[in-house]
């Protein structure tokens, strides 16, 4: 069994899984956890066939489900088989303001906002500049005294477990 995890972005489609060419996956479980301290978060889930656009009228299988803080939604009663190119995509809202952290905690692939420049060279880790307020996708952890915060994310984390069939 394989597992993929992803923190859901705010007000945009987040692709959790795309089945590679020549493969088929049996989805065994989908979990969505609201890791937030107080606020509820809403989400949609789409099962998108290869080559089809994500559509609220054709591909959405969960519509505007409200998940209270600290709760987990489990989608495991139905087994779903996905073919090459098929996708599981989420849409979530609202955003969450994350606490600031040192730039040396940046995780590759996550989006951050520069809070303070300090002695950090943000251009070395994916930013176009070192300007406070700039949003960038991290290519590594920084060094120095600069601070960052996760940007454009919700408190939802989705996990999909599957078997290759």
Relevant terms:
single chain; 165 residues; mainly beta; Jelly Rolls; 2 domains; 5-stranded antiparallel sheet; 4-stranded antiparallel sheet; 13 strands
Task: Explain what you see.
This protein is mainly beta and 165 residues long. The chain has 2 domains: 104 residues, Jelly Rolls, CATH 2.60.120; 50 residues, no CATH class. It contains no helices and 13 strands. Strands 1, 3, 6, 7 and 13 form a 5-stranded antiparallel sheet that branches. It has a 4-stranded antiparallel sheet with strand order 2-8-4-5, with no helix packed on it. The model has no long low-confidence stretch (mean pLDDT 95).
How are the SSEs ordered, and which strands pair?
Blueprint: E1 2-9, E2 13-18, E3 24-34, E4 41-48, E5 60-67, E6 72-75, E7 80-83, E8 87-93, E9 101-102, E10 111-116, E11 135-137, E12 147-150, E13 153-164
Antiparallel strand pairs: 1-13, 2-8, 3-6, 3-7, 3-13, 4-5, 4-8, 9-12, 10-11, 10-12
| CATH-assigned fold name of the largest domain | Jelly Rolls
State the low-pLDDT regions, or none.
Answer: none
So, CATH architecture of the largest domain? Answer: Sandwich
Query: What is the class of the largest domain in the CATH system?
Result: Mainly Beta
Number of helices: 0
Backbone CA Rg: 18 Å
The global form is globular
Could you describe the largest sheet, including whether it forms a barrel?
5 strands, antiparallel
Distance between the termini: 11 Å
Structural class: mainly beta
The multimeric state of the shown protein is: single chain
DSSP summary, beta strand count: 13
Strand content of the residues, in percent? Answer: over 45%
Mean pLDDT: 95
Question: Fraction of residues in helices?
Answer: under 10%
Helix and strand pattern: EEEEEEEEEEEEE
* Count of domains: 2
């Amino acid at each position: 069994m394989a597992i993929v995890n992803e923190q859901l972005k705010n007000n945009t489609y987040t692709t959790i899984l795309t089945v590679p060419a020549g493969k088929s996956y049996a989805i065994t479980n989908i979990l969505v956890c609201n890791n937030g301290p107080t606020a509820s978060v809403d989400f949609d889930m789409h099962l998108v066939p290869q080559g089809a656009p994500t559509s609220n009228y054709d591909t959405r299988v969960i519509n505007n489900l409200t998940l209270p803080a600290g709760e987990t939604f489990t989608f495991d009663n139905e087994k779903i088989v996905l073919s090459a190119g098929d996708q599981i995509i989420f849409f979530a809202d609202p955003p969450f303001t994350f606490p600031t952290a040192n730039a040396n905690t940046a995780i590759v692939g996550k989006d951050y906002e520069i809070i303070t420049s300090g002695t950090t060279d943000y251009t070395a880790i994916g930013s176009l500049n070192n300007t406070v307020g700039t949003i960038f996708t991290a290519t590594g952890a920084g060094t120095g005294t600069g601070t960052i915060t996760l940007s454009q994310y919700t408190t939802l984390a989705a996990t999909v477990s599957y078997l290759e069939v």
